[in-house]
Amino acid sequence: MPIDWPRLTDLLAQHVQLSFAALGLALVIALPLAIWSVRNRTVAGITLGFASLVQTIPALALLALFFPLLLALSALFGDAISPLGFLPSLLALTLYALLPILRNAVTGLRSVEPAMVEAADGVGMTGLQKLWLVEAPLASTTIMAGVRTAAVWTIGAATLSTTVGQPSLGDLIFAGLQTQNWTLVLEGCLAAAGLAITVDLLLGLIESGIAHRRHARIWGAAIALALGLALALWPAPQTDRPVVTIGAKRFSEQYILARLIGRRLEAAGYAVRYREGLGSAVVYRALASDEVQVYVDYAGTIWTNEMQRQDSKPRPQMLAEIARWAQTQHGVRLIGPLGFENTYAFAVRPDDAKRLNLRSLDDVVRVAPDFVFGTDVEFLERPEWQMVQKAYPLRFKARRAFEPTFMYRALSLGEADIISAFSSDGRIAANGLVVLADPKGAVPSYDAILLASRSAAADPRLIAALEPLVGAIPVEKMREANYRVDRDADKQSPSDSAIWLDRAISAKTEDKNP
Amino acid sequence: MATSPIPSRPQGARGPAVAFEGVGKAYGTTIAIDTICATISPGTFVAIVGSSGSGKSTLLKTVNRLIEPDSGRVRIDGQDVAGREPHRLRRSIGYVFQNIGLFPHMTVAQNIGIGSRLATGQTLASDRVGDLLDLVDLPRDFAARLPEQLSGGQQQRVGVARALAGEPGLMLMDEPFGALDPVTREALGEQYRALHERLGLTTIMVTHDMAEALLFADRVWVMAGGRIVAEAEPAELIAGGCGAEAEALVAVPRLQAERITAMRSGG
């Protein structure tokens, strides 16, 4: 697959903006704190302790934790505070960058020799002059070493900001990981690593320039950094077409559908942006706050996660209730179901199905104590799992969580014996997996539904451009499109697959309406 | 050295008088200096000698408020030093100490000019830096060097030049030549004494070397246990009768001198 250069440079620019902003903010916070810490032991204990504590929280979790916090704040202060995208990413990365800067600055300032302090006092420096003329210059190489560490960490961790809806090089990594497109993963990794190494080298030049009093070196590197930032901040060519942001969660079907929607909107004269790789909890919030204007979700997900419903309703009634709820709560419009379902489908290997005579979840209850249950990372926490457990007394030997892509592999390799697959996944048919029936109807309906935000709902042209998709995608076509992206050989990119899907469903619609 | 243009104070100027009025300082239960009363008349070179922990450095540092006394006051020309802002007070007093404390990231010229930069924001004119280098007997082209490129003796000469740059009347020296080799030490001591006279300074020098004190100072204060136990001119001290502590300290160089004389006549 050829490299999509415009997209790569756009993501690189966003990555640079985010990591530089976080690093800058961390410097502004950490340096005064370091100075205060050096003069006051209690403060040192508190600041270093806090920074170390932050460091023990995994970056991904830290990003996720800012979401509810900012959500609460945005409820108080309104639209100025967005719980998604730049702000949570900036805050999390800033917190992360604090420790190396703070620790090195404190160490550097503390290691200034007492003779220097005595001399500074002796010649009549004020506290500020002493800090600026003596302590800071003497500690500067140690401080710069901390800044370098922070820069590398920040640039690396910024790839995770994709999960809260901030575009970064992580978009490529997450998309590649989900669609097993290793070229894309490498592209993202290499770009992030290249950026980190370049920034580290430039900061290293500044550091050695300070140590050896080479002003040309310091200025040269500083100007190179400033130019890089200026390039990243250079506004993208403005389009006079209205811009629509399309959201996508973190799996192949979502990437493909986002591109399909994008194609239709572009054909209707809109400019589109993609926010891909969003966590499922995040994406609906993004729509509700109008940061994302269109995306595809699944009826059961909204029903259980957003509406907190535990009951099961017949499909038409469920869709009607979702439409009413979304409209009244967030002004979100349910454009309609796409025509296929992507529900949780419990799948086993065909040989096991035959040997153990497994047809439904009732049959699994019998063999569960010998089975390892493979799930995606969120399933065990989801209400659907509670509903399934209520209906079928399943006691598995062990449970293992995988990224969706690896879940199918795990089943084929015998690492898991039953998985919580997705019914629209092309790999079910391709691997000949047996999907077990759910005779008690424990899992709610998961019709794919097209949702539009408040602003998109108010644009009749946009709705008109997307309405033809309603009821237009049969599950076989979706499976095939998914498989084109997920298969191991002759993989397609989500956008190529979307082109295929677009043609396939257009042909079908034409057949229907000659 | 004596023929160089005077980069300094008006001819015939005299350094200030210094008075200690009941100055005391304790660290917890340890008394560093015990209510000291003493005066220094203008233009005098006073050496404070004593063993380690006798309180001599503490006493010296109460003058430029590097140490704040618990009791009593220090007056310079009658003015209480506590009444002045510490950094302004210190800019008007030359301070030289054992660890030299040249700023390693600044050139010799920047080190010498630091007082001017602090007070006025201006760098010191290169002529003036050159004059000060002349004064301490260093080549003028040292101005562009970094401290690490100088020997210990050269560094302390820069230290003295830095202390003199602000044209102070009073110089405080805390074991200024303590870390130097004996030859350099002797030469620097000699040259500083000459400067002291030529510039009409008041100098207070702390040293643990009685020979240095006897050779260069006008008056010698002997300290022990936080008190001044003897105060005399060098000649009086050598003559004896100034107390046991003074005797013990004077005995060392005297004995050394006698032995050397004996060796010379014997050989």
UniProtKB/TrEMBL annotation, chain A:
It is found in: Cell membrane. One of its GO terms (cellular component) is ATP-binding cassette (ABC) transporter complex. GO terms for biological process: glycine betaine transport. Residues 12-207 form the ABC transmembrane type-1 domain. Keywords: Membrane, Transmembrane, Transmembrane helix, Transport. Its main location: membrane. It comes from the Bacteria. It is a multi-pass membrane protein. GO terms for molecular function: transmembrane transporter activity. The chain crosses the membrane at residues 20-38, 50-77, 83-102, 145-164, 184-206, 218-236. InterPro entries: ABC_Gly_betaine_transp_sub-bd (IPR007210), ABC_transp_perm/SBD (IPR051204), MetI-like (IPR000515), MetI-like_sf (IPR035906). Pfam families: BPD_transp_1, OpuAC. Belongs to the binding-protein-dependent transport system permease family. In the N-terminal section; belongs to the binding-protein-dependent transport system permease family. This is Osmoprotectant transport system permease protein.
From TrEMBL, chain B:
GO terms for molecular function: ATP binding; ATP hydrolysis activity. It comes from the Bacteria. GO terms for biological process: quaternary ammonium group transport. Pfam families: ABC_tran. The keyword Transport applies. Residues 18-250 form the ABC transporter domain. PROSITE patterns: ABC_TRANSPORTER_1 (PS00211), ABC_TRANSPORTER_2 (PS50893). The keyword Zinc does not apply. Gene3D superfamilies: P-loop containing nucleotide triphosphate hydrolases (3.40.50.300). InterPro entries: AAA+_ATPase, ABC_SmlMolc_Importer, ABC_transporter-like_ATP-bd, ABC_transporter-like_CS, P-loop_NTPase. Keywords: ATP-binding, Nucleotide-binding, Transport. PANTHER family: SPERMIDINE/PUTRESCINE IMPORT ATP-BINDING PROTEIN POTA, SPERMIDINE_PUTRESCINE IMPORT ATP-BINDING PROTEIN POTA. This is Osmoprotectant transport system ATP-binding protein. It comes from Blastomonas natatoria.
